Amino acid sequence: MIDKLKNTTGVKLTLMIAGILWLKTVVISLVGFDLSIQSFLDIVLILTSSVGSLLFVTGLSFYFGKKVNKSILFALLFIGTGILYGDLLYYRFYIDFVTAPILFQFDNVGGLSASTVELMSPWDAFLFLDLFIVGWFLFKMKSTIFTVKKQTKRKYLAVSSLLIVLTICLGLIKSIHLFSESYDREQMVKSLGPLNYHLYDIALGINAPLQRLFVTESDAVASQKYLQQKDSERTDLFGVAKGKNVVLISMESTQNFVINQKVNGKEVTPFLNDLIKDSFYFSQVYDQTAQGKTSDAELMIDTGLYPLASGSVFVRRPENTYYSLPHILKEHKNYYAAAFHGNVRTFWNRDVMYDSLGYDKFFSKKDYKVTEENSINYGIKDIPFFQQSVKYLENLPEPYYAKFLTLTNHFPFLLEEEDTFIDQAETDEEVVNRYVTTVRYLDKSIEKFFKELKEEGIYKDTVFVLYGDHYGISEKYEKGLSELLGEEVNIANQTKHQQIPLIIHVPGQEGETITTQGGEIDIRATLLHLLGIKTESSYSFGHNLFTRDSDHPVVFRDGSFVSKDYVYKDNGCYDKEDGKTVNVQHCEPYFDVVRQELKLSDNIIFGDLLRFMVEE
Ligand code: GP9
Ligand code: MN
Question: What is its membrane topology (predicted)?
Fold first, then answer.
């Protein structure tokens, strides 16, 4: 009788810990994460998905000695709670889930550290209260009563394993592509629960480096076939910028809504607003970056490949073979390629990746005179950055491709009084209010840069490509943005806010606004068209924006996309104009191509497939 009691006490205690963790998981999933609930099955999944694995993990405490190990149980509760809380804080900032690779590049993840306290809420304390109670309770109990019979242990683990299998089946019923679409993290977390999601994500991270070893040339041929299917229609603009130098400017965190936007009666980007009148201005180009932020935008522009779903390609695959813009330009017209950036050269692993991308020279922080007065936030301010760059630019061998990465307009958008050319906005969101001033500063820095290039006689032989690298106002501050723009928060507007400006300025060429829909991945093909370089065999997923089919979806890294009339996001289909939910059938015709493009691009990157296709 006493033995039986001991046996059940140990099991009950283990069940209790699993139960507490389950409750926390469910509460965080339902309240902390803004998971989109599309069907009753979603709720069932959220409630059940963690049960099996929580039982399994807590059951491991049976195997440390003869008795249930109190300290192991407490450690599991502590670690489980810590992971969930980490997830919650990360989600509050990024509206996304932590991935294993991002943990290795935390130095490059701007923003979170400075504002971690801001992300916390007093309510969070409830998540930790039980630790004290359970800790005290466990401490008081005598270990001798925790013995669990072998048979019971086996049953416990068998039941939990069965439940894990059932959960996975349920997840697969929800979506048969659950695992092949693991980039859709919301779907993963919804279907597997946050803790299982982490385990799967770690497994993916371990598997990724092995992929290179198991691919062969025939895998490369399959990708090649797909990439060469694209049309190569020519327009009258083919070659209008032939032989010109290329100056590419990455406008940090610049979203398209700032173009022609007034705040307190003043233009936020007066220079850009003027420039677009004499430029090709692409007004419907979407940010397609993921966790690699600026580096993801660079990747798309230089290689025409999609970023990875987790982590930055610059950090994860810097030694691959790439067929990048510097390589193409060198091959066709013997261009010299240089990158200019005021931050340290190791940020985003640029020092290594730029070699693979074919840059001849990288002017980084060490090449600039950086003082406390001329720096803010991540480093040298954009005005002195451009000013100091001109002398380097003048001395480059021509023709050249020069890439400039600006820095000042970066979260949390800090600016000194002397650099403030417009008053802050007046919304309830400080971040949005400040953003306007740093964008205005960026605009001024580009204006000065152009002026100087004109004075130095560099301007007229150059084609300029200016693009916003990614959002500045994340979803977390979306309300402030809607307040600024006087719009309601809905999917249609959120989608619009994902647009970044793309301006291609060819001196002497008449301006035109192009409303063709596209993404950052299309910038390269568009530029090559103007430079008169054929793009058929350039191994890229991009399309020339002058001829792009608007109904070819603009694919985002989480599997969402925008087609001509619809938006697919968080597993829901919406009308692009009014943001209203529509039957998912409208989005279904695009699913295959989206899945295929992401998969092929991942294969190329993880398998380093271009080494088979490109002659080095
Ligand atoms: C820093 C720059 C900005 O070098 O790339 O970082 P990000 O926008 O990627 O956070
Ligand atoms: Mn950036």
Answer: Multi-pass membrane protein
What are the distances in angstroms from CA 48 to CA 15, 102, 304, 460?
15, 28, 41, 64
The answer to whether 449 and 462 are in contact (CB under 8 A) is no
Q: Which tokens is 408 given? A: 């000042």
| Closest ligand by atom to 353 CA | 1
495 carries an active-site annotation: no
The answer to whether 431 and 412 have CB atoms below 8 angstroms apart is: yes
Query: What's the gap in Å between 188 CA and the centre of ligand 2?
Result: 27
pLDDT digits (tens, 9 = 90+) for 355-388: 999 999 999 999 999 999 999 998 999 999 999 9
Q: Quick one: DSSP state of residue 29?
A: I
Q: Quick one: how far is CA 590 from the chain centroid?
A: 21
C-alpha dihedral, 155 to 161 to 162 to 164, nearest 10°? 150
Task: Please give the backbone phi and psi of residue 267, each rounded to the nearest 5 degrees, phi first.
Answer: -70, 140
CA separation for the pair 364, 396 (Å, rounded):
15
CA of 173 to the centre of ligand 1 (A): 40
In Å, the largest CA–CA distance within the chain is 96
The predicted-structure confidence for 312-333, as pLDDT tens digits, reads as follows 999 999 999 999 999 999 998 8
Beta strands 280-286 and 518-519: pairing type? parallel
- Order of all β-strands in the sheet with 561-562: 554-555, 561-562, 566-569, 572-575
Pair of tokens at residue 549: 């089919």
CB–CB of 433/277 below 8 Å? no
List the beta bridge partners of residue 555.
561
Tell me the pTM: 0.90
| Among 369, 367, 309, 378, residue whose Cα is nearest residue 338 | 367
Q: What stretches of 287-374 adopt beta strand conformation (E)?
A: 336-341, 361-363
Q: Which two tokens stand for residue 566?
A: 């619809």
pLDDT value at 599 more than 50: yes
Instruction: Spell out a b/e string for 485-496, using b for 16 or more CB atoms within 10 Å of the CB, else e.
Output: eeeeeebbbbbb
As for ligand 1, residues whose beta carbon falls within 6 Å of it are: 110, 293-294, 343, 347-348, 378, 410
CB atoms within 10 A of CB 354: 27
Distance of CA 170 to the CA centre of its chain: 28
* Residues contacting 507, CB < 8 A, separation 6+: 459, 460, 462
Indicate the helix (H) or strand (E) that contains 512: strand 512-514
Domains, the chain, ordered by start:
2-210 (no CATH), 240-551 (3.40.720.10)
Amino acid sitting at position 394:
E
Q: Which amino acid is at 189?
A: V
Lowest-pLDDT range, 105-109, 140-144, 423-427, 606-610? 105-109
Which atom of ligand 1 is least distant from the CA of 344? 4
